[in-house]
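Renewal narrative, Specific Aim 1. Our central claim is that a sequence can be written position by position from structural information alone. The example that follows is taken directly from our test logs and has not been curated for this report. It begins with the structure tokens describing the chain, in the order in which they were read.
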């Protein structure tokens, strides 16, 4: 057995305890309460702790500062103490690709040498960052590239919010300390639609998004954050209750038969159970609608009958429907529906009174579109295998 040989892979999140670095503790990803506790544990008087958290928070999340020495409203002695006990660390960018359409795809490395992908999609006067919540995904949706990646671990809250901080670094979008708030933002929206199932990493996703929404820091409104789930029914209500962001459901099929094949979690929580959870979804405000994502797969789920069934199924749920032309990846067992088919499907939905935008694939030339993400190391491993098979080498 060589050093690099890995343990047998299971469908469970590998529960290898994350080996905490022996050295200083990372402040990134701590909630305000947690930060207060660690400051007190390191000797900050209780009476001062809340104020100190406020100051440090503003530097880290308001101004993007990573060096305690720059925190000029803290005494020199306190700054030195902080630097001894703590670090301010975010994932490291391994590579960055820029698509013809301006989409940026980052490969970032997190503790343990794992890698995840992050995608920035610029739009007119706004921009969306698609972030990952897990390395790989334990689920195996048959049309999703990420679902073919076996190695999985949950990202920490720091690694999740760290992706947002990394993108703000790259976009050079941290305001100068003391500068007035700029209302137009390059990074104005976040979608949890990268690698992983966010509701299988609920607490870390929640804590990270609370940091993103905090009025003293990155300050994104809860309306500008969307969490997409394949349908982890027991956790759905908590999204509204504990995070308050927008909810998107990877619906993708109108019969249990087809959904079992596309989104296997349907075997655990089928359409009826899922729709029941959505009907009783505790809305934060009355105007809010749930987004139904629907990937268009040629000959699989794209008939007129599917469109009519979809409308019947979601009847009574405040909804918008987002049609996603299937994004191809090497070896994918599906094809994208034709443009005419997608338009005909959209038309039926539109006539039934629903907004039915068709999502424009972005960054396809750099494999950055929905469902194309997979760690480069995994990809490299696979292509090596493929090369070996082609040349008849290896085993
Ligand atoms: N795990 C979560 C979030 C990540 S996937 C979920 O499944 O909802 C984000 C969206 O991309 C989901 O709606 C997913 O179904 C969709 N998707 C996955 N693979 C795709 C592909 N190849 N083409 C188009 N959309 C895809
Ligand atoms: Fe996981 Fe979502 Fe891909 Fe399904 S579609 S395998 S839940 S990332």
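The sequence written for that structure reads:
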């Amino acid at each position: 057995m060589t050093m690099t040989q890995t343990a047998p892979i299971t469908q469970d999140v590998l529960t290898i305890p994350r080996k905490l670095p022996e050295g200083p503790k990372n402040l990134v990803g701590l909630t305000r309460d947690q930060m207060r506790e660690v400051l007190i544990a390191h000797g900050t008087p209780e009476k001062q702790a809340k104020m100190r958290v406020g100051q440090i928070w503003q530097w880290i999340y308001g101004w993007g500062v990573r060096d305690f020495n720059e925190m000029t409203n803290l005494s020199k002695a306190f700054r030195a103490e902080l630097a001894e006990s703590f670090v301010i660390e975010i994932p490291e960018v391994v590579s960055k690709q820029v698509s013809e359409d301006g989409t940026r795809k980052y490969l970032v490395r997190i503790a343990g040498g794992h890698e995840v992908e992050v995608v920035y999609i610029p739009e007119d006067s706004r921009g969306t960052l698609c972030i990952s919540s897990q390395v790989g995904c334990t689920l195996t949706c048959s049309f999703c590239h990420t679902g073919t990646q076996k190695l999985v671990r949950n990202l920490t809250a720091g690694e999740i919010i760290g992706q947002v901080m990394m993108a703000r670094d790259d976009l050079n979008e941290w305001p100068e300390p003391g500068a007035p708030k700029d209302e137009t933002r390059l990074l104005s929206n976040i979608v949890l639609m990268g690698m992983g199932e966010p509701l299988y990493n609920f607490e870390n996703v929640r804590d990270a998004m609370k940091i993103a929404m905090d009025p003293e820091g990155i300050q994104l409104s809860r309306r500008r954050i969307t969490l997409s789930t394949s349908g982890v029914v027991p956790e759905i209500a908590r999204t509204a209750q504990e995070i308050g962001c927008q909810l998107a459901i990877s619906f993708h099929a109108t019969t249990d038969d087809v959904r079992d094949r596309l989104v296997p979690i349907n075997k655990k929580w089928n359409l009826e159970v899922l729709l029941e959870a959505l009907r009783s979804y505790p809305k934060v405000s009355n105007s809010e609608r749930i987004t139904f994502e629907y990937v268009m797969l040629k000959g699989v789920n794209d008939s007129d009958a599917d469109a009519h069934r979809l409308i019947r199924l979601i009847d009574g749920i405040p909804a918008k429907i987002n049609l996603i032309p299937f994004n191809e990846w090497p070896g994918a067992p599906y094809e994208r529906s034709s443009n005419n088919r997608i338009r005909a499907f959209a038309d039926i939905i539109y006539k039934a009174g629903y907004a039915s935008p068709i999502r424009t694939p972005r960054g396809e030339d750099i494999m950055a579109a929905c469902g194309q993400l997979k760690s480069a190391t995994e990809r490299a491993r696979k292509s090596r295998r493929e090369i070996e098979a082609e040349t008849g080498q290896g085993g």
